[in-house]
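Chapter summary example.
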Amino acid sequence: MLKKAIFVIILLAPIFAYSKNSIVVNALKELDVCIAKRSSYETVKKQKIQTLEVQFHKENSSLTHRYNLCSELYNEYRSYKYDSAYSYAGRMLQMAVKLNNPDFIANSKIALAFSCVSAGLYKEASEISNTIDTTQLQTNTKADFYSFLSTLNINMADFSAAEPYYSKYRDNSLKYCRYSIALSNQVSPNEIMAKIRICQLEGDFPKAITIANQYLSTEHPGLHDYAIITSTLGFFYQTEGDTTKAIECFSSAAIADIKLATKETSAIRQLAELLYIQGDVQRAYSYDILALDDANFYNARQRKIEVGRVLPIIEAGRFEIINEQKNKLLMYSGLISLLFILFVIATLIILKQKKRLNSARLLILQQNKDLLQSNEELTEVQKILSKQNIDLLHINERLKEAHHIKDEYIGYFFSTNSAYLEKLEDYRKMIARKIRSRQFDQLLELSTSSDLRKEREEMFALFDQIFTKLFPDFVSRYNKLFNEEDRVVIKSDGILTPEIRIFALIRLGITESERIANFLDFSLSTVKNYKTKVKNRSIIPNELFEHKIMEIESVKTEISDKIN
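The structure predicted for these 564 residues follows.
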């Protein structure tokens, strides 16, 4: 039983691994699409702020209405731009004092203190919060105040990190969480965050994950609250070692932040750190640069420090990858140079072989002359040797035809190789130039592009042109082997069909199906199927078809005319 269970686990492991990898890829892909639309979301944000500011600066509105507009502007700027949020929080406090509304005054001071926390000014935030009198506040305002105090103390604990201050601030945060929950009369994001923080401070991460998931599945929080809770959930998954879930949560939180044009955010920074640990250095670098841009725009020192802490580490890893790519490119350049040298050597060998073939051709021509002279001198035995002479003339005609074909294809070979050498030289120069210019991204894109299909089609067109020049009657002679309805019609551009091209190669002496398949970029089965279908359509027996193909002559010579 145990062996069966182990076997099932081993069998399903790749499926689970693929599923997790697919989740991560889809999450990051969705985030990248959202990042590409980032400017459009910011435009919507700016338009909304502009509309509120126009309404706020109207002189005929009441002080209460202006306070509410100022509060809306603060909420828009709170996670968008620190100095503007701080400025509107100050205006809120001035108007709240004039209105003499305790809840307005408390909310304004909480807004000011929150802005200080975002900037890392914990002492100033504590001083502002100490001036809030809770005795005159409504229950909901008290709950929000204690929720803020919990956030302030957990930030101070993380900042100090040393005992006994860490334990003191941690206990204060836990205490204010409980106060906030006790005062909440309905389910809200602040109450959920307070419950989650209690579990976090008590080290019960599984329970915190359960609370967060249950809230997200049953309630419909706004994008800002969703981003905060999902980002916190991602931190818990990362702590528990579930990297896939952590990346998914951080990506979802970052998407929500981008759609809201939130600049005071930690989700994309945490995602960048996690991706760097996972080895995705390039994406980690781009995300951390984005986080740094947001921190600089928000203009709060604390956020800049948080992002700047990890950026040099990611940059060092990225530089190391670039060096590895550079070394690979140098190695590939050396390999290409070596291949070029071997190609030159092969060309020289071919030239030498061509010279030998020319010598052999001259020798054969001389021998033919000698035979003709001997034939004139041996007229007395002409009847006996006539048959032999006819056979020799046939052989000689075939030899001339073979040499003619070789001459044409050797010229075609050198023309093709010359063009290839020029392309190879241009390609080598371009690689060297881009290496000197350190354009490694363009080299990477270059390595993924290919025009092999186009070049193969050009090669086929040139082959068809040379073959029809050598065998101008090949297509008409080929069609005589079929009934009228089965004959092939060649287009005006002279391009041969695949089946005619196969038998053209056979006529040139390339009879092996493997070589034909390699030349035409077909599979072996495709070549065999073509040959079988053509033979079955012909009007002569299948076993004689290729023999008939070989009987098709090239351009007729004077000797063949004499024989006829």
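To summarize the output: Residues 5-19, 557-564 have pLDDT under 50 and may be disordered.
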